[in-house]
Design brief:
Blueprint: H1 9-18, H2 28-34, H3 40-67, H4 71-85, H5 92-104, H6 108-112, H7 119-134, H8 137-143, H9 150-164, H10 174-197, H11 201-228
Helix pairs in contact: 3-4, 3-5, 3-7, 3-8, 3-11, 4-5, 7-11, 8-10, 8-11, 9-10
Length: about 230
């Protein structure tokens, strides 16, 4: 049986970008969130549940690093952990997300003890971390390519929230404002990494499956949040 030829670089990049149709920006909950149709408790539920994802990102990035034998990749990838966790407590992406919790009126202690995290979100996020622990480093990197689709979505979120949710303290937008330029640079590096290291058809197919899986993780999170609504 003949082995399928590898996709050309542009063809492979196009196939990865083509999975943008599965990104969570098209989910009914996000459409409602960005058109001002969510009640305050629904916004708070989204923030509280997204916290579980945020606080798990460094664990999945550490798993990718642990599986990667290449020092230059490890050195670059560890920057994501520093960005998210900060160099001291209360800094970085996690600190900014807690500021968002404050801005929408969530009790910080309730955020930290995760009492509002619904089981579907917990299950989906844990599955993502486990995927990165149990698959190759380049599959974990490929799964992170949802960042190709996120900068415009985050920019639209800031605009929409300012327009529709005047009750949110604008100080809470710091996470998105700081993350947008970083993720633009990260996505270019990540895409190049996947294109360079997934140089067989088998690897390319695995990378596409990894990115599709990550899109499903994000969609499952919103399914769970949408189902539970603002019940807290």
């Amino acid at each position: 049986m003949a082995v399928a030829r590898p996709r050309g670089r542009d063809e492979f990049a196009g196939a990865l970008r083509g999975l943008g149709d599965r990104y969570w920006d098209r989910h009914p909950f996000h459409l409602r969130l960005h058109t001002g149709k969510c009640e305050p408790d629904e916004v708070r539920s989204w923030v509280a549940n997204r916290w579980y994802y945020q606080r798990s990102l460094s664990q999945k990035n550490a798993a990718i690093i642990a599986n990667c034998p290449l020092p230059d990749v490890r050195r670059r990838w560890v920057e994501r952990i520093v960005f998210q966790d900060g160099r001291d407590g209360g800094e970085g992406g996690l600190g900014d997300w807690l500021a968002l919790a404050d801005a929408v009126g969530l009790d910080r202690s309730a955020m930290l003890d995760e009492r509002h995290v619904v089981r579907g979100v917990r299950f989906a996020v844990d599955a993502y971390v486990t995927f990165c622990r149990t698959h190759t480093w380049w599959e974990g990197v490929a799964a992170a390519l949802t960042e190709l689709f996120s900068p415009g979505h985050m920019a639209a979120r800031i605009t929409a929230w300012r327009r529709h949710y005047g009750w949110i303290d604008p100080a809470g937008f710091a996470y998105f404002e700081s993350r947008i330029p970083v993720v633009r640079a990260d996505s270019a590096y990540t895409l190049d990494l996947v294109l360079n290291h997934c140089d067989t058809r088998r690897r390319q197919d695995a990378a596409l499956a990894a990115l599709a899986f990550k899109c499903d993780v994000l969609g499952a999170m919103l399914d769970a949040v949408d189902y539970h609504g603002g019940r807290r």
